[in-house]
Amino acid sequence: MLDQKVNLAGVELKNPIVVPSGTFGFGREYGQFFDLSELGAICVKGLTPQPREGNPAPRIAETPMGILNSVGLQNPGVDAFVAQELPELRRHDVKIIANISGNTPEEYGEMCEKLSAAGVDMIEVNISCPNVKAGGLAYGTRPELAAEVTEVAKRHASVPVMVKLSPNVTDITEIARAVAGAGADALSLINTIRGMRIDVKTRRPILKMNTGGLSGPAVLPVAVRMVWEVHAAVDLPILGMGGVSTGADAAELMLAGATAVAVGTASFADVYAPVRVRDELSALAEEQGLQRVSELTGAVRPWG
Ligand code: SIN
């Protein structure tokens, strides 16, 4: 029997499959289709100090092999999450990762305190949302600001802190090194790639915000390359994500260096995608004669 457990910065996941922030809400809808305890971890929709309605519609556009979103961090706020959503999620035997976004380092710190006290298993510090004016990419594209947010989050959190990196930079290892130096316990990557679509008849951008973040199978090679680069640059566990829709995709990200893998946009086309990917990944590892799925991590054999 394959051992599917993986250890993400001290948080033991029963298998490497995570559902990433923004693709799974707080699990209520998907819980009608499969037992959420089947997953390694659930990363909840990005939380902010106050409730947010998000950006005006249209905020989703289809693309070849993916989607573009400009949701803008719609969420009920951290207090409502703690009061209403976390107790529901806690009914399942699954690790809970809270994704947070703030306008200032202090806001990140306050949320880290509240969420640690509320008993989440891990906090994912989002410094890479491409759809908000303050916070988000403003922090994730500048090493010194990324480090400052990480340091404040670490000071206020009593659970492991994972920092979510943006692909919208020239050299992702520069940001990875900065947040590692500031004490991050793990990294997650990649968030979405900035993109734009235009309706050729109206000559209007399809998204009301003009631009958005691209996810889905089209971004997988970018994610694999960036996970590989970051794995070589810093000694931190990585939650790899970006376009995974099969077990082989998940294996690619693990071979590149990911400890665990998130299955996100694929869930919009197939609600069972996370559990299917988990089963396909296990079958692939067993076919290769592995004892533990974690043997895949970083096992790529690069040329030259
Ligand atoms: C959003 O809500 O705009 C997406 C969140 C993100 O990309 O971090």
Automatic annotation (TrEMBL):
* Primary localisation category: cytoplasm
- Which transformation does this protein catalyse, written as a reaction? (S)-dihydroorotate + A = orotate + AH2; (S)-dihydroorotate + NAD(+) = orotate + NADH + H(+)
What is the cofactor note?
Binds 1 FMN per subunit.
Active site location: 129
Q: Which UniProt keywords apply?
A: Cytoplasm, Flavoprotein, FMN, NAD, Oxidoreductase, Pyrimidine biosynthesis
Cofactor(s) recorded for this entry are: FMN
Q: Which domain of life is it from?
A: Bacteria
Subcellular location(s) of the protein: Cytoplasm
Q: Name one GO cellular component term.
A: cytoplasm
Q: Where is the Dihydroorotate dehydrogenase catalytic domain?
A: 5-283
State the Gene Ontology terms under molecular function.
dihydroorotate dehydrogenase (NAD+) activity
* Any one GO biological process: 'de novo' UMP biosynthetic process
> Oxidoreductase: present as a keyword of the record?
yes
Q: Provide the residue positions that the database annotates as binding substrate.
A: 45, 69-73, 126, 191-192
**What are the EC numbers?**
1.3.-.-
Q: What class of enzyme is it?
A: oxidoreductase
Q: Which residues bind FMN?
A: 21, 45-46, 99, 126, 164, 190, 216, 242-243, 264-265
Pathway assigned in UniProt: Pyrimidine metabolism; UMP biosynthesis via de novo pathway; orotate from (S)-dihydroorotate (NAD(+) route): step 1/1
Q: What does this protein do?
A: Catalyzes the conversion of dihydroorotate to orotate with NAD(+) as electron acceptor.
Please give the family membership noted in the entry.
Belongs to the dihydroorotate dehydrogenase family. Type 1 subfamily.
> Would you tell me the protein name for this molecule?
Dihydroorotate dehydrogenase
